[in-house]
């Protein structure tokens, strides 16, 4: 059935002839335009990673946060329209605070995510307002329930996840997370931080800042930004592993496709092999391989 | 069918079309099939059963949080079909209504009254231009203290009715004809037979053999009048029984 968007997509209070609410679907597209955010649930905690694209050199490091603290034990990573996300973070904080003043203890994450999801859903019912253009991932850790991770999207639906990704590179991120088999991991393990780095790298844009936060046993149940030394260690490890993966992929491609005849060929092979990597990385790896390729260049000249 | 006089908004908000139809309400029904799931409810002689498919599309999803069966009160349960977010909202509203009734009158609300209340709320959405009907349908099951096992369905148009058996969702027409055939002779259904009939209906309409993890079953019986969902082991028992009968 063709989706007749025109005319039925002007307000959230209109169904299209095939039963879809287009405004909500458009809101989800707004999320897909933003840079990626990832949340991973492991045995003893949650790790969030958000890729913040650096648009200007005047940008101050550490400002413009995309990970919020909702109460001491809950963290929220967002993707989509940041202004909408900030107002939802306020809503989540109020919910958590009201719960604490009514019942005297930390809000359980399922309850919080249900409440915020219903708030988001309410904005998909009326023509006077538009749906929120952001998705977010909520995560918390406590001794009784363990680690929990929920994702809420603009339609107002919330589900629990073992690992989830929102934003531009979400498909690639999900594949990588599945490969990791997150259920068996512990928070500190570097593989996970490496994964965030890999996935964040799979975009065309050159410069980005990585915001990492965690909540778990290591932080005694408090949601905090990952300390600088751990983060740097992880980044170094991630870059090394990333380089190794690219090398092996390059070798594999050479075996199947034959060595490229020129520098340009190398560059293009790398770009094909590594997907949309940033140019900087490609040139760097090219440089290292040039020596090993020069002998093969001569043999191929006849064929060219 | 001249549409010159109206401004053409009859398809956009809940006003009447020149033929007297409410297009937005009809589109809301189509939204129920969008989710791709089908749910069946069957009332036996001393129990009621609701069965629905459980699809967990993403490996990373925590499947224990994916469910379409909800408790509205300890004795009334429901299965929701259609748009997920709208379903949650309606369940929440139902719980609020049930809670307020208990607070005001001191006794538990019955399924028919709750269903009527939700239907009235859904009707309001079909009369206000500013809001849209919810794209979901609720099948309520309960053990009524006076009438025994009851099965009610409440749809986006604000219509509700009690049923001996009903189906909602993507394959509802086929499922409804299957159920009509099987229940034509008004057989007496024991609890096990009711469960197995619901499962077989779903299996035949969708032409697939189910595993226990692909189904969600909720029951209310005379001996255990509280609404509960069956565990995978119990579902497996019923699936085996169906296989042996064939």
From TrEMBL, chain A:
- Please name the Pfam families in this protein's record: Proteasome, Proteasome_A_N
Name of the protein this chain belongs to: Proteasome subunit alpha type-3
Keywords, A to Z? Acetylation, Cytoplasm, Nucleus, Phosphoprotein, Proteasome
Q: Which CDD domains match?
A: proteasome_alpha_type_3 (cd03751)
Q: Where in the sequence is the signal peptide annotated?
A: none
Cite a GO CC annotation.
cytosol
- Provide the assembly information: The 26S proteasome consists of a 20S proteasome core and two 19S regulatory subunits. The 20S proteasome core is a barrel-shaped complex made of 28 subunits that are arranged in four stacked rings. The two outer rings are each formed by seven alpha subunits, and the two inner rings are formed by seven beta subunits. The proteolytic activity is exerted by three beta-subunits PSMB5, PSMB6 and PSMB7. Interacts with AURKB. Interacts with CDKN1A. Interacts with MDM2 and RB1. Interacts with the C-terminus of TBXA2R isoform 2. Interacts with DNAJB2.
Query: Which domain of life does the UniProt lineage start with?
Result: Eukaryota
PANTHER family from the UniProt entry? PROTEASOME SUBUNIT ALPHA/BETA
Q: Which InterPro entries match?
A: Ntn_hydrolases_N, Proteasome_alpha, Proteasome_alpha-type, Proteasome_asu_N, Proteasome_sua/b
Location(s), subcellular: Cytoplasm; Nucleus
The chain positions of domain Proteasome alpha-type subunits read 8-30
Show the SMART domains listed in the entry.
Proteasome_A_N
User: What SUPFAM superfamilies does the annotation carry?
Assistant: N-terminal nucleophile aminohydrolases (Ntn hydrolases)
The UniProt family comment states: Belongs to the peptidase T1A family.
User: Which terms under GO biological process does the entry name?
Assistant: ubiquitin-dependent protein catabolic process
TrEMBL record, chain B:
A biological-process GO annotation: ubiquitin-dependent protein catabolic process
Among SUPFAM superfamilies, the record links this protein to: N-terminal nucleophile aminohydrolases (Ntn hydrolases)
**Which Pfam families does the entry mention?**
Proteasome, Proteasome_A_N
The Proteasome alpha-type subunits domain sits at 9-31
Mind telling me which PROSITE patterns this protein's record contains?
A: PROTEASOME_ALPHA_1, PROTEASOME_ALPHA_2
User: What GO terms fall under cellular component here?
Assistant: cytoplasm; nucleus; proteasome core complex, alpha-subunit complex
From the Swiss-Prot or TrEMBL record, state where the protein is found: Cytoplasm; Nucleus
* Assigned keywords, A-Z: Cytoplasm, Nucleus, Proteasome
Q: CDD domains under this entry?
A: proteasome_alpha_type_6
Q: Which InterPro entries match?
A: Ntn_hydrolases_N, Proteasome_alpha, Proteasome_alpha-type, Proteasome_asu_N, Proteasome_sua/b, Proteasome_subunit_alpha6
Task: Determine the domain of life of the protein's source.
Answer: Eukaryota
Keyword presence, Chloroplast: no
Q: Which family does it belong to?
A: Belongs to the peptidase T1A family.
Subunit info here reads: The 26S proteasome consists of a 20S proteasome core and two 19S regulatory subunits.
Question: Any idea what this protein is called?
Answer: Proteasome subunit alpha type
